[in-house]
Amino acid sequence: MAAVKPKRHGPAMDMTAMCDVAFLLLTFFIMASSFKSEETVTINTPSSISQDLIPETDASMVSIDSEGRYYFGIVDPSQRDDFAKVLSDKYSLGLTNKELVQFTTLSEVGVPMKQLKAYINLTEKERESYSLTGIPLDSTDTEMVNWVRTFGESFPNSTITVRGDGSTPYPALRNLFKQFGAADLNKFKLITKTEK
Amino acid sequence: MADVVVKDSGGGKGKPRVKKGAGKPDMTPMVDLGFLLITFFIYTTTFSKPNTMVYNTPKELPPDEVVEQELDIKVSNTITIILGGDDRVFWYQVPLKEVTVDDLVETDYASDGIRNAILLKKSKALDPDSWTVIIKPSDESTWKNSVDILDEMAITVSERKAVVDLQQVEKVAYYAKIGKPIPTE
Hints:
The complex is a heterodimer.
Chain A: H1 16-32, E1 47-48, E2 52-53, E3 59-64, E4 70-74, H2 80-90, H3 97-103, E5 108-109, H4 116-120, H5 124-129, H6 143-154, E6 159-164, H7 170-182, E7 187-194
Parallel strand pairs in A: 1-7, 3-6, 6-7
Antiparallel strand pairs in A: 3-4, 4-5
Chain B: H1 28-44, E1 51-56, E2 78-83, E3 89-92, E4 105-107, H2 114-123, E5 132-137, H3 143-155, E6 160-163, H4 168-178
Parallel strand pairs in B: 2-5, 5-6
Antiparallel strand pairs in B: 2-3, 3-4
C-alpha cells in the first residue's frame, strides 16, 4: 500500500533583508556615481603617491596617447557646450545648437578644428573607426594652444591638466611643455593613478 | 519561495473562519531588479577619481632679456639623474663638463634603487637648503619614467628640481654607457 506522501513545499526564504541591502547599495551607487563620457582614446596613466584629486570643474585636459598624438578634453561635461560656443564663434566653425549639445558627450577631441563639425556629426559607430590625427602642436602649427587659451578665456582661473599615457615617449611631452611655455602657459597638473 | 496567501472568501455563511494573516509579498523579483540596477550602476560609474601632481615649468624669457645668472650651486649639493630607455636610470654627481662614462652609476626605479641614491647624496649635501635634483630624460625614456622620478622628488622631499634636456657631453657618456651610437637628429 502506497504511503501518502506529505505535500512538500520548497524552502522559503525571507527576501526582505536582502531586498533592503540591495536597495541600500543601489542608493549609494546612484549618489556616488558620475557617468562616463564616451571615451575617444584609452590612456593608461602612470601612478604616483600624490593625494590631490583632479578638480571637478574649470579644468581642461590635454591627453597624449602612446603614439604621441594630442587630444583636448574638458573634465566637467556641463562646461563643454559653453566652451564649444566660444570656440565656434572665435574661429567661425559654424556649430549649430544641436552640435554644441552633441559636443558635450565627447570626453576628448582628437581632430583639428577644421574637422570638428564633421566629426561631431558622425554617429558613435562611425567615430570608433574614424582615424584620429590628434590636434596639431608643433613649431609650425600650435593649434592645441588655441584650444587651451580659448578654454582659459571662457573660464578664468581654470587649470590645465596633462594626462599622458605611461608608455608615451618623452619627446612628445617635452614638445608639449615647450610649446605651452612659449605661449606663457607654465602651470600644469599631471594626472596620475593612485599608487597601489 | 514565499507565497501570497489568498484570503479565502468562501461565502458569508457557515462557521466563522479562523482569521488568516495578511500574507507576505514575494520579494524575489524586487531583489532581482535591485541587483540588476546595482550592476548597471557599477559598470557605468567612474569610481575612483584620478589624482594630480602639480608641475610648473619655468617661465620662458625672450632671448634679449635672458640674463646669465650666476648660479652658485656646488656639485655636492646636486644629483643629476638621467632617464634612459628600457626603464633604465643613471645618476652622477660630478660637474657637467667633466662627466664621462665612468661617472654614470646605473640603478633602478625600485624603492632601494634611485631613492636610496637620492637620500644618501642628500644626507651628505653640504648645504641641505640648496639641495637640487636635476632630471634629464633622454629621448628614449617614457612618460612613466618622468612621473616616477617626479614622484621620488615628493617622497624624498627634494623641492628644488629641474627637468632639462641632455647636453652633448652627457649624451656621449650616456650612449657609451648603454653601448649604442648617438642618434643623429
